[in-house]
Structure formats: structure tokens, C-alpha cells
Amino acid sequence: MDNAHEKKTADSAAGEAAAQPSEPEETPSQEEENPPLTLPPDAIIVVPVRNMVLFPGLIVPITIGRERSIAAAREAARSEGKLGIILQRDPEIAAPEPDDLHQVGTTASIVRYVTLQDGSHHIVCQGEQRFRVLEFLAGYPFHVARIAPLDEPEAEAESAEIEARMLQLKARTGEILRLLPQAPAELTSMAMNIRSPGMLADFIAGLMDLLPEEKQDVLETFDLQARLDRVLQLLVRRIDVLRISHDIDEQTKKRLEERQREGLLREQLKTIQKQLGEEDSSAAETAGLLEAITKAKMPEEVNTHARKELRRLERMSEAAGEYSMLRSYLEWLTELPWSVASDDRIDIAEARKILDDEHYGLQKIKRRILEHLAVRKLNPQGKSPILCFVGPPGVGKTSLGQSIARATGRKFVRISLGGVHDEAEIRGHRRTYIGALPGNIIQAIRKAGTNNCVMMLDEVDKLGTGVHGDPSSALLEVLDPEQNGTFRDNYLAVPFDLSRVMFICTANMLDTIPGPLRDRMEVIHLPGYTEQEKAQIAERYLIQRQLEANGLQPQQCEITAEAIHAIIGDYTREAGVRNLEREIGNTFRHVAMRIAEGTADHVRIDAADLHGILGAARYEGELAMRASVPGVATGLAWTPVGGDILFIEASRAPGHGKLILTGQLGEVMKESAQAALTLLKSRSAELQVDPDLFDKTDIHIHVPAGAIPKDGPSAGVAMFIALASLATNRAVQSDHAMTGEISLRGLVLPVGGVKEKVLAALRAGITTVLLPLRNQKDLEEIPQDAQARLKFVWLETVDDAVRAALGPIDTEVLPN
After folding, report:
1. For this structure, is 777 an active site residue?
2. What is the value of pTM for the model shown?
3. Out of 672, 714, 725, 734, which one is annotated catalytic?
4. Residue 224: φ, ψ to 5°
5. In whole angstroms, what is the distance from residue 54 CA to residue 126 CA?
6. At what angle do helices 716-728 and 667-682 cross, to 10 degrees?
7. What is the pLDDT of residues 630-646, one digit of tens each?
8. Are 496 and 379 in contact (CB under 8 A)?
């Protein structure tokens, strides 16, 4: 009774599985011309199949396409006989032979034979019983085999082991059907209603998604308990796979739901913003930033960091306070020239021509620049030097940096460091501060657009210090060729390579530059110009520049060389040419006014015309200012704006041997005056000076221009000569100037700034310069035209200075 019920249930399920769409059918009948074949009683027609196994009790559709299989199916349908469905061992074999087939199969009856319009053939088979092949018979147009049917061992169905396995199998079947998507509920009911252990195992094995070899293994397992164990094992493994797949599917579904929810909310937000007229542009901005990061070709470390920050930005709302800060940060990263470099123009001849055309003189500086270019040509991967131009204002330090950039074919950027007292101006602020920005170095790199620009750090000697740190210390890493390859700005927080940047520093004096910073630079001194050099610079550059600045044509205005020399001598007194250009501009503006009024078409300016244009001469010849009286000597001094002359005046009055010093003298200069007086007392016999003179009088030494502080030891010789002139009542020769430090033994010691001092003497009309003998090596730095116009007296002791400045000491009665 139970078996009949199982059979009925299986049949109804099979009928549902075998339902096909309405197509033309072809069911072979007895009316065909060929009579049915006669087979032995224990023989059956065999149809080989690929990748499927038919179990007893199941109804399965089978597609047949091989000619022998079609003929076998037609014969079985016509004769209403049975078919033997056998799995072939290798599915790739198109025409399998008996050895290519398994030995165990399932007999089946054909429920329906269908031929579709496309010519394909399909049969719906119901499995009935296992069989074993005894032998294949020859002489038939298809496979025919003698078989031995295999009965189910029903006698063991009632044992406890079998019943336990059936209960376990049904429980597992219910579990797997719950895991399967869209599994029909009828399958669970059918499995629970099956009473036969063998039919249950076959039913479940047929429904499971197993490999053909695994299903064949179940088909060939005749022992009922072993078959149940095998199906249970396969079922448990499949449940584990489905459970894991189900978990993965749930997780994926959950993520998709979250993204769909987020996407839905974003779409709703966009709609709301659109209605309010505030359309969201974050997606476009993010896409643009991603493209910019790709194009920037950053180093690997920086690229990884930038993409990480971009992902943060994508997850961030535009209303967040950090959104704009992070977007600005990414814009800075993408706009820096990480991999953009200008091609160095390594043409030594062309570079020399550019430097000569734009700057007169400065041969030492030009030679150093050309040396750098030659090294870059031979070693392109070498480190750029750190040059420091030191000199008075107006000598062309900044314009020389621009010429270097043009000569090398690089971009030029300038950073003014005068008055900078915050370390963050160099290294930048951290991003946590509102309004944070990178430092001036990174800003200049961004402005240049290349990572090998020429960067001028102007007025490096005027850096200040304050409560925000020491900016000169922050420059130590920037200006160190061994360290600036990994310069880390506080705002960027990633390293940037500055090793290819050519740094040029400018300063008026070296004393205020910290030692460690000065040690990192190659110092090149730019002294002032001689009058002849200034005239050449004016004729080559300044006149043309001022003509253009004032809207004049060369045919409208002409200025003579005598007028230029008059402007240099009477209206300017400087080491550079800045005031010279300014006075030329004043002259040309007067001409421009006359031409604009229509009172003249062409104006020629001569030296005599300058009084009416520029007014009275501002500077007189220094010789005219000197009174040929004893006690006055002309010294030479160095200042941050170039050399200058310095008058030393000595006077005496009745007193008690007191020394009075005035003129805002520094401690070192006061000590020089005391040393000069002591030295004069020790040499009173050689100078024929009455020793009682110093006890009966007070000595007063004054240095004019008292509002200007003065210090340094180089006025020692001039102070001694002034005191000697006063004591011997002999005037110092008015065209003589001197410099040098003295010792109590009468030695003249070397001093610095010789070139600047000599040029100052030349500007003042001095003809003879007294210099320490140990400064003779500095003579080669003095321009040739200056050497030709001056006489140099080299001093080893103060006696040499007395003979040169005062002449021989004659025997005469000295005043009391």
C-alpha cells in the first residue's frame, strides 16, 4: 500500500516535470513501413547519455541528437518497449562504443516523444529499475544489450539503522530545500511522504546538483545502508556549500541594500538640493580630483596617501566642516609639479651671451654660473648648488638671478624673506588650523609649475625670530643639498623633492646670517661699481629702460656721456646703480613733459642742463670738504650699502690728559682710539713730540655724522695719523685715505671689505690709498680701471703710514 502511494506521488511529480510547451509532436506508430525488430527476451535497447543519470522512479526529459540514439528512441517508442539509459564515461566521445559506457544503468519507459520545429528530438522517460549489462549484441543499428535486472533489497527496510538514516536524510532534505532559492514546497512534501528507503535515496540523489560521476556512484551502490550513507554524505556536503553560499548571498544582499539605500538617499538629497537651487557638485568634483591625481604622476607614497584622502572625501558630506579643508588639500597635492620639469638649456656659449648681454662686469659670478652649467651638462643627475650673492643694494643681485633662469631655460620665482619671523612661513601650517596653507617654498614651487625652477630667497640676512619659532632654522633643511630631497612641509605632510631646485640667496651682509645656514651656501660677493662701470651700465641698460618707462623714443631724447658722469658724481653716491636709474628717470620725465606740451620735438641733455632739471648738485667733492689743518685724517669704512669715507678729527685743549670720544662710536672703535693714543705716546721720541704735551692737554677725537653708529677696528691707522698730525702740527695730505687695524707694537693688521673701501675712495676723488701690506692679495679683486687711477701704499707698520701721510718729520719747535 505504501509502495503504491509512493508510485502515485512520484508519477504526479513526474507529470509536472515533463510538461512541455505546445509544439508539433511525432510519436512513431505501428503504421510505419519497417516492421518492429525482434530482440531476445533479456535484451533491451540502450541509449548512451552525457552528463546525466536516470534514477528509478523519476521522470526526466532527455534531448537526443545522435543518429543512433534517435533511431533507438523511435524503435522503443514504436514497439512500446523499454530503453536502457546508461551514462558514458567520457562526454567528449561523439560515437561511444560498449567499452565507453558504464555497466550499470536504469530501464525506462518513454512517456512522450517530441520533435520540435527546429528538428531537435526530445523524450520524456520514467526510470523503473536498475540493471547490469551482461553483453552488447551486434547486428543492430543502435546499441542493444543483454541485461540482468537488479531488484531493491526491501527486506532490510524495517531495520533500526535504515530507519534512523531515513529520518536523518529527510531532515537534511528539508534543510537543503529551505536553502535552495525558489524551491517548490511540493518537493518537501513528496520527500517526507516516501516510505521506501531506496526510493528516498534515489529521489534525493536525482534532485541534488551533483556531478554525473557522483550520481553514477549512487546508482551503482546496491547495498541500501551504504547507499543511504553515501547520499547523506553528499547531502551534508552540499548543505555546507549552500549554507556558505547563502551567508555570502545575504551579506552581498545586505551591502547592496545599504548601497541602494545610500544611493536612494543621495538621489533624494540631489532632488531636494535641485529644488532649492543648490545642486550637488560633489560627484563631479570627486571625479575631477581622481583624474587630477592620476595626471599628477605623484611618487608611490604620495599617490597612495592622496587616494586615501580622496576616499575620505567621497564618504564625507559637503556640509561637514572638514570637507572644504580636505578638498583644498587634495587640490594642492594635484597642482604641485611632482613630475613636471623644464628642459635645461645646456648651451654654454648661449648662456655666456645671455649673461654678457644683460649684465656688465661681474666676471666672477658669470664664471661660476657657467661652471655650474658645465657640471649639469656632464652630470645631469647632480645636485644643484646653493649660491648666495652678498653685496650692497642696487648692484643687481635680483636681476642676476633672473638672468640665470633665462640662461638655463628654467622658470624663475622669488621669495622675499625680509621681516619673516614665523617658522610656518617656510614650513607651512598644519591642516588642523583654520586657513592653513603650505609654506612659501611650496607655494613658489606651485607658482613656477616645475620642480627644477630657479628660486631666489631674497634678503636672507633680514630674517627675524619671534615667539613662532626661528625661520632661519627652518631653512637649514631647504638649503642643504643632502637633505632637501625629502623636504616635508607641515601642510602637505608628505615629502617633496627640492634637490633639483636651484636656490639663489641674496644678502647685504653676512654677519646677521646664522653660521649653520651660512655654511650651507656658497657665498659670492658683489661689490659696488666704479664710475666707469656705472656709466657703461647706464648706456647699455638704464637709458633704454627709462626711455620705454616714460614713453619716449630714442629720436626724441638724447643724453650725453658727460651728463651721465655728472649725474653719477654730483647727484648719486652709492655702490649700486638704483639711484642712478632713478635720476635718469627724473631727467627723462622732464623731457617727456616738454614733448607732451609740444614745446620741443627733440631734446639733448648735457651736463650743463642738469642744474635746471635736477637742481643743485647734492654732493660736493670730498676734497673740498677737507680743511688742510692738522688733526684731520680720512679713513675708509665698510657699510652694508657699500664702502664709504670716514673723517677722523682730533683736537686738543688745556687739561689733564683726558681722552674724549664722540660720534656714536662702538666699543671696538673706542678701544682703537685708546690704542692709537697709547701708541702715539710710546713713539713720541721718533715723532719729536714733547711727552709733557699729553699731561697738560685733553685730547678730543670726533667722527662726524654723529647720528650714525660706527664700530670696527679698521679705523685704527686713521686715528693714529690724526693724532700724529695733531701732535706734530702737520696736515695730512688731502688726497690720501687709509684703513687698517693697529697693534700696540705699531703693526698694521689686515681688514676686510678692501674692494668696497677702494671704490668708495675712488668715488670721493682720493688718489692715494694706504692699505695693510697683508691685504695685498685683495688687489686682484679691484677693477683694472680703479687700479689705474689710484696709487696704493702698503703699510707694514704705522711708521710707513706716517711717512706716506705726513711726510718726513723735520726738526722744529713743536707748540706747547
Report:
1. no
2. 0.58
3. 714
4. -65, -45
5. 8
6. 40
7. 888 989 888 766 678 88
8. no
